[in-house]
Amino acid sequence: MFFSGPAQTYGVSAFVDPMLADLGWSRSLFSTAYSVGTLASAGALLIVGRQIDRWGNRAVLTVSAIGFGGALFLMSAVGGAVTLLVGFALLRTCGSGVLTLAARTLVPHWFVRRRGRAFSLLGLAGALSLAVVPPVNELLIRAVGWRTAWRIDAIVIWLVLLPAVAIVVRNRPEDIGQRPDGERPLAGQDAVTLEPDAGLTLREALRTPAFWGLIGASIVPSLVVTGLAFNQVAIFTARGLPSTLAATTFTVESALGLPTTLLAGWLVDRYPVRYVLAAGQICLAAAMVSLLATQSPALALLYSAWRGASSGLWMVAADVAWPAYFGRRHLGSIRGFGFSVGVVGAAIGPIPFGLAYDLLGGYNPAIAGLLILPVLATFAVLRSRPPLIVAPDHAVASASVVSR
Q1: How would you label 199-235 residue by residue, b for 16+ Cβ within 10 Å and e otherwise?
Q2: Which residues contact 287 (CB under 8 A, 6 or more apart)?
Q3: Residues in Cβ contact with 294 at an 8 Å cutoff, skipping those fewer than 6 apart
Q4: What secondary structure does DSSP assign to 30-61, as a single string?
């Protein structure tokens, strides 16, 4: 999760202006290439989700890390629109897409009763990445140029991330004679032969209102946050604020996201997860309102604080909601579908901002127009109730989670 940063929008954002200045392209062209490349990764996630169910997270993580490094190297060689599009497609597929999908479907196999706390620790990695990657990329670009900065990111992925996922990761506790949450097998029960708990197939999940409520709400953070993060430097500089403030706001967002992520893990282990999901959407709406009023560094920091709270609450709650609502037997396929829809939202996100800037001369119309989305998403998640799932093993623990 930490090393997916160079493929996330906050990691790419540091490269936008230097690449535009060097290559002489319009911001709309660059935003569209990023969006199309992101959209191309959505189809891959549908396929990869099924492969996670079939081959396991370890194999998928390893292949993804290899492709991720290759995509970063390709970004360093961009010289035309076609190579930019292919580079973004590979970067968003292997890095922000497959890598995070495999990581976030690994945790539910190892934790049931403590799933919230486990995902909050995973969320800390994402928050730390948000704090570290943007300023490090900016320093690299200033020191050695944007092409060499991409190459350095690639080398780090291959030397650090690839060995870690290939050697350390294990798919499921049952594969090595253990049980979720570290529980001991019942008397006369062989842990090695235990199967994952029951869960709905993707086709069954598609027929439930809860699935579509979560899907609809999941598009909103992807679309809005991607659009904001992709254009964050430009939004601030257009208001007379220094470009370095964008990197600072990422750090502030991460700083508030850290305790919020831990709080979210505690909340979802104790209260209905839909309430925490709704809180995340409300914080995103507050962030957008703050950004509309931002004319000073203080208000920019307030905006980033709301975003940090939103991301911390939503990310952990959503990660818990999917396995809690639909079980873990077919989680790769189900989350692969959800990730694909989120990728579509992320692909669309930068476009309204680029069009608003080119056609209307600013970003405020896009921000104001998109404000309705987190409001609608709040009602959607509050109305979503989990379907009933029967879990043959871990029945008590699973039932307590699913009931939320």
Answers
A1: bbebebbeebebbebbbbbbbbbbbbbbbbbbbbbbb
A2: 303, 304, 306, 307, 310
A3: 236, 239, 241, 300, 302, 303
A4: HHHHHHHHHHHHHHHHHHHHHHHHHH-HHHHH
CA distance 53 to 109: 11
Distance CA 135, CA 138 (A): 5
The size of the chain, in residues, is 404
With CA atoms as reference, report the closest residue to 14 among 230, 227, 224, 248.
Answer: 230
* pLDDT tens per residue, range 367-404: 888 889 999 999 988 888 777 554 443 333 333 344 34
Q: What is the pLDDT of residue 390?
A: 43
Single out the residue of 103, 340, 88 nearest to residue 218, CA to CA. Answer: 340
Domains delineated in the chain? 2-172+195-402 (1.20.1250.20)
pTM for this entry: 0.74
Give the Cα separation of 347 and 340 in Å (integer).
10
